[in-house]
Design a protein that fits this description.
With 211 residues, this protein is of the alpha+beta class. It has five helices and eight strands, in the order αββββααβαβββα. A six-stranded antiparallel beta barrel has the order 1-2-3-7-6-4. Strand 6 and strand 7 form a beta hairpin. The radius of gyration is 16 Å and the shape is globular. It starts with a helix and ends with a helix.
């Protein structure tokens, strides 16, 4: 199904397969609700257990979720494919402006995830209620800065890497642009059409599994 989704995006090709273990990072997690959704919002700590070992920056990293309606499996290890993520301008700006601060507190982490879902068209940040006081307001502040902000910031501060699973939540990793040479994944997913195609294929496959 992954290759079918890539073909829909016009970007079919081989991908890098890895084995990941995913857990909540620093306790930055809460329950949340929005129209049509009730579940967890979290920042994730990811450990790459692939053999032979995978080097930095893919050996361990922090990640956020791409899809609202998919779950993260925190039991055991899961197979993921590593794909370059060409973010649209708003998602890139969100990362450039706020990713580093999202690593410092639960309110920033939860607010960042909600803002990311909003920019990806997964949910409206206005409709979210979270268990972390101030996280909803933080998300709206981030979105306002992305859409209307005039304060200077360092552009293209991060390269974004998508980790795609056929069975579980897809993840988004930020790699500092000054990290030096980073092994290039062999396929590219565009931050609009590619994500929608992957989501469509995932939902279609899981619906077939449940039938």
């Amino acid at each position: 199904m992954l290759l079918a989704a890539l073909a829909l995006a016009g970007m079919a090709g081989a991908v890098q397969a890895d084995v990941l273990k995913v857990d909540v990072n620093n306790g930055y997690t809460t329950v949340a609700s929005a129209p049509g959704y009730q579940g967890e919002v979290a920042q994730w700590s990811v450990t790459n257990t692939t053999v032979p070992a995978v080097g930095a920056p893919f050996d361990s990293f922090v990640a956020y979720c791409l899809q609202l309606m998919e779950s993260v499996d925190q039991v055991g290890e899961q197979n993921y494919s590593r794909i370059s993520f060409a973010a649209n301008a708003d998602v890139q700006e969100l990362y450039d402006r706020f990713y580093s601060s999202s690593l410092t507190s639960a309110v920033n982490a939860v607010g960042f995830q909600v803002a990311l879902w909003d920019l990806l068209g997964q949910a409206d940040a206005d409709g979210f209620v979270t268990g972390v006081s101030g996280a909803g307001a933080k998300a709206l502040m981030m979105l306002d800065e992305v859409h209307n902000g005039t304060d200077p910031y360092q552009q293209d501060r991060y390269r974004l890497i998508s980790w795609v699973s056929e069975d579980h939540q897809d993840l988004l990793q930020a790699v500092p642009a000054d990290a030096g040479e980073v092994p290039e994944p062999s396929a590219l997913v565009l931050g609009g059409v590619g994500l929608l195609a992957l989501g469509w294929a995932s939902r279609r496959r899981k619906a077939t599994d449940r039938a």
